[in-house]
């Protein structure tokens, strides 16, 4: 389990009245399937483009679908009852969608009001470092620029932490000091990880504004610094030079491929006893396994286009047996749009191909391995899901394919459906004895096998069955990915400098 920090920004929403701008904007945040509100709301005064300071610290599980909902309101009274305020829009997503987006930054349109454009919400997430230090700081300024025609400025400071994609996320606001060009702000304490996530060299941007009652705060100026510089106590300077060439954490793109068993041992799809039988009221085991795993892992694939293959069937028009055919019938472009697209292609294939045999895994393993071999720099990682009902026929060839694939950025998930014995699958899993081929051991353990029957809920709750299955089969993927990176000495990001007593934060004016 990791912890991530989620941040919300809203852009370009329309106030309820075109003549009266929003007085306050509130965001509520709900988590998990039950959508219970886990956090108190965050409120921003007088703006149509709010950057919410509130951070949401969440437990993050790669193997689980963690549903989120963000609601935005126009707050025009002190009532805590949101039903008494104007609803501006909402968005649903999963934590995996945010984490899996480029630079972990997801932009989605707000909805919930028919016929109205509600604006856009930008959600970002970052894994929290282990740094648990707090910094206590105090700032002052001299001879700030005067922004008010009558009287002096009312300055306040806004602190931003830099993100991996070069953008900035607000992390702290000071109080407003009224009617002065030489403000002295109150000391404040802030977690170091909120400022820089434990990276002492990461850029911190500070902007100074003149507060205005209507929310149109006037920009006075800005400077950039870092936590390391703040710790050195550069009290004589109030402007720092911007540093370039900041190292960014590498982001690995995950590619998901599914391969489905079309051998005759599954039974005639037109009969209710078949594992491929399409019950109009209930998904079969193949569809449930695909949906359970795919709906979680798709959040980490940016284009949501997935190759979907079948094996062990006779194909039209000549009855040729294939162990590597595209479910959509397009050999040049086997990609399906999302998990829904894979399910549609799977259903269509059952109407056009003839279930046959034998049960050969090696062709689909080698298919994905060919793509993985072209991306060994850590930028891409490939996950193959094989769903099967029976005893494997090409054990020696499959072992060789897996041993070769273990050197590549690749993992294999095998889900067994039906009541067959799966002894060979347990051997491929390699948890007890690492598999080998021709005297060569697999470099890594890349196979995870589970029989779906072990996850069937006794009460018939298929949603619960699917969640249990996904949790177990996906739990090993992060460790397998990391094991590949370590085996190739691929480092995601330089570690922050070690903490030492001499690095204690000081209380320094700027």
From TrEMBL:
Keywords: Calcium, Metal-binding, Repeat. Residues 255-481 form the VWFA domain. One of its GO terms (molecular function) is calcium-dependent phospholipid binding. Residues 490-510 are annotated as: Disordered. GO terms for cellular component: plasma membrane. It comes from the Eukaryota. Residues 1-110, 117-240 form the C2 domain. GO terms for biological process: cellular response to calcium ion. SMART domains: C2 (SM00239), VWA (SM00327). This is Copine Va. InterPro entries: C2_dom, C2_domain_sf, C2B_Copine, Copine, Copine_C, VWF_A, vWFA_dom_sf. Belongs to the copine family.
């Amino acid at each position: 389990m990791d912890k991530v920090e989620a941040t919300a920004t809203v852009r370009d929403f329309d106030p309820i009245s075109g003549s009266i701008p929003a007085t306050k904007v509130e965001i509520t945040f709900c988590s998990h399937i039950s959508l219970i509100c886990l956090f108190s709301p965050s409120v921003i005064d007088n703006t149509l483009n709010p950057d919410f300071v509130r951070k949401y610290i969440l437990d993050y599980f790669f193997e689980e679908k963690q549903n989120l909902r963000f609601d935005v309101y126009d707050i025009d009274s002190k009532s805590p009852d949101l039903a008494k305020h104007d609803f501006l829009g909402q968005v649903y997503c999963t934590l995996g969608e945010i984490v899996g987006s480029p630079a972990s930054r997801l932009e989605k349109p707000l909805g919930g009001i028919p016929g109205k454009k509600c604006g856009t919400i930008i959600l970002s997430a970052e894994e929290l470092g282990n740094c648990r230090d707090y910094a206590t700081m105090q700032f002052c300024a001299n001879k700030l620029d005067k922004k008010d025609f009558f009287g002096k400025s009312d300055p306040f400071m806004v602190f931003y932490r830099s993100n991996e994609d070069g953008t900035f996320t607000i992390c702290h606001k000071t109080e407003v000091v009224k009617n002065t060009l030489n403000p002295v702000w109150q000391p404040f304490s802030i977690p170091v990880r909120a400022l820089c996530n434990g990276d002492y060299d990461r850029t911190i941007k500070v902007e100074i504004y003149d507060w205005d009652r209507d929310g149109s705060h006037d920009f006075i100026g800005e400077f950039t610094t870092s936590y390391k510089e703040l710790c050195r106590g550069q009290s004589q300077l109030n402007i720092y030079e911007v540093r370039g060439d900041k190292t960014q954490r590498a982001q690995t793109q995950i590619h998901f491929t599914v391969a489905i068993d079309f051998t005759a041992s599954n039974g005639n799809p037109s009969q209710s006893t078949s594992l491929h039988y399409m019950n109009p009221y209930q998904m079969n085991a193949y569809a449930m396994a695909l949906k359970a795993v795919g709906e979680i892992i798709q959040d980490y694939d940016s284009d949501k286009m997935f190759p979907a293959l079948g094996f062990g069937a006779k194909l039209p028009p000549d009855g040729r047996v294939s162990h590597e055919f595209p479910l959509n019938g397009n050999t040049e472009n086997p990609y399906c749009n999302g998990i829904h697209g894979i399910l549609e292609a799977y259903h269509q294939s059952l109407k056009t191909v003839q279930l046959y045999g034998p049960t050969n895994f090696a062709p689909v393993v080698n298919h994905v391995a060919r793509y993985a071999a072209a991306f060994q720099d850590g930028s891409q990682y490939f996950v193959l899901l094989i769903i099967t009902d029976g005893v494997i026929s090409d054990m020696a060839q499959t072992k060789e394919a897996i041993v070769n694939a273990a050197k590549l950025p690749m993992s294999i998930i095998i889900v067994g459906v039906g009541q067959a014995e799966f002894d060979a699958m347990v051997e491929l899993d390699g948890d007890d004895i690492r598999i080998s081929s021709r005297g060569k051991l697999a470099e890594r353990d890349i196979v995870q096998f589970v029989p779906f029957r072990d996850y069937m809920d006794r009460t018939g709750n298929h949603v619960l069955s699917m969640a249990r299955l996904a949790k177990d089969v996906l739990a090993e993927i992060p460790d397998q990915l990391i094991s590949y990176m370590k085996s190739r000495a691929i480092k995601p990001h330089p570690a922050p400098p070690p903490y030492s007593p001499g690095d204690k934060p000081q209380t320094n004016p700027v």
